[in-house]
Amino acid sequence: MDKALEIKDLTVIYETGSRRKKALDTLSFSVGRGEIFGFLGPNGAGKTTTIKTLLGILRPTAGDVFLFRKNPFKYMSRQPVGYMPEVADYYWYLTPKELLFLYGKLFGIGRKILLRRIDGLLALVGLSDRKHTLMKTFSKGMLQKISFIQSLINDPELLILDEPTTGLDPIAKMGMRDTILKLKNRGKTIFFSSHELSEVEIISDRVAILKDGLLLKETSPKDILDKKGTHTTLEKYFFELVKK
Amino acid sequence: MKSLSKIFALAAHAFKELVRKKDFYVFLFLFLGLVFFFYNESFFGMRGVSRYLKDIGFSLITLFSIIIAVSFAAKQIPSEIESKTIYPLLAKPVSRTHLILGKFLGSFFISGIAFTAFYLIYLSFIFARGEAANAVLLAQSYLFSIFLLGLLSAIAVFFSLFFTVAANLTVTLLLYFFIYWYNGILRELILSSPKTLSRLYGALYYLLPHFEFYDTRIRLVHLWDPLPAWVVISVFIYTLIYISLMIWAACSVFKRKSL
Question: What is the pTM of this model?
């Protein structure tokens, strides 16, 4: 299978003064095109650090990362990638349409296509009627929806989502899950980190479990669930693995 | 070409921020209030104060524009980092150089537009009072102020990678006023100090930006002759080189900065 992203012996060490903290330790895995890959781990496991390195925002101390076989530190390699951050205080003085327009322009998308795409994306999350409203009036859930659709503005081949369902109500969560599955059916690759293990179990083809910067397991939820008697859910498996 | 459109998109965003955040309007209304106050000549109770009014007016618009330029440039990158919007921005096919250039251009345009608005009001004030003015000198003063704002924006963008917004504002403004007022002393120190110290002062003299180059206030107030073209061109080239160096330094630092 062709690889959408690849991480080889990735090590990241944060240095603050004389203190050194190993955030990632020789992490290696890859995600094939068209896969939904769940990236799990407790807080501080190194999920966001991995994502920042994948996006070329953080330089690794050692090891390599590739997006579609290209170096993510070359900015044009991020052209086919969409990213939704875990938290971002989007510019309150902009409307969703203006935010999406700005981000679309950064992808070099033409005005006509961009405006059509913005309308489609706002309709996807039910915010068409708020497209001219300043985002300072938006709830956390609405901002999370905006954050999700901004990651789709370039119709990405690879979607990287950091805790995408945080702050969403159950209906919105279901909507996002359906959208992710639809994207997979269109051949898109989705790499996402989450604490919502039941969601991960439902939609992921494969998962990686991380703890203290180390990869504990890379497997498919199906394999875990097949081992009945020992582990019945991904959640139980995750807790047992992380507790060790 | 695509790089340029990305830089302009970032600059346009910075401009929108100014319009929506209304910082500029505070200065505009303050300036209008002061103009109205000074327009009432009886406040001074005498004639012949027009030079002072021209002087004060020009000093005010320069000061307000400098504050807008520095404060806006100083917060561009830190506010993106603080709000974590820097991550979705840099996850796009945008380099850190694009971001610095976009932020610099945005701040420069904003302060330029603010100065233009202030200057137009200032000119209306001068003409309404029937003051004598030299059109070439007025144009030169405008250009030099715009150059100065570009230079200060570039310096503030560079400092924003090291300092908080408040510290940056203080350091940049102190640097401006220090050089503006004490440049002559530095020149005297070069001439009067022992050789080693003199070299040190000399290096400092050439390294620090020469803000006094942009001062046309006295010329404007006292209706001196306009500057020759070669001076304007030289100052323009000096500004361009200094801005390029500051932006290059900012890009180099930002590329290595952990986010």
Answer: 0.89
Domains identified in chain B, total number: 1
Contact (CB<8Å) A103/B92: yes
Tens of pLDDT, residues A8-43: 999 999 988 788 888 999 999 999 999 999 999 888
Q: What is the pLDDT of residues B158-215, one digit of tens each?
A: 999 999 999 999 999 999 998 888 888 888 888 888 888 899 988 888 899 999 899 9
DSSP 8-state code for residue A165: T
- CB distance A103–B88 less than 8 Å? yes
SS3 A151: coil
A163 and A113 in contact (C-beta within 8 Å)? no
The residue range of the domain holding B73 is 2-256
Of B2, B89, B259, the CB nearest to A108: B2
**Three-state DSSP state, A6:** strand
Answer yes or no: are the C-beta atoms of B106 and B76 closer than 8 Å.
Answer: yes
ipTM for the predicted complex: 0.90
The DSSP letter of residue A156 is: -
Q: Which of B2, B91, B259 sits opposite A81 (nearest CB)?
A: B91
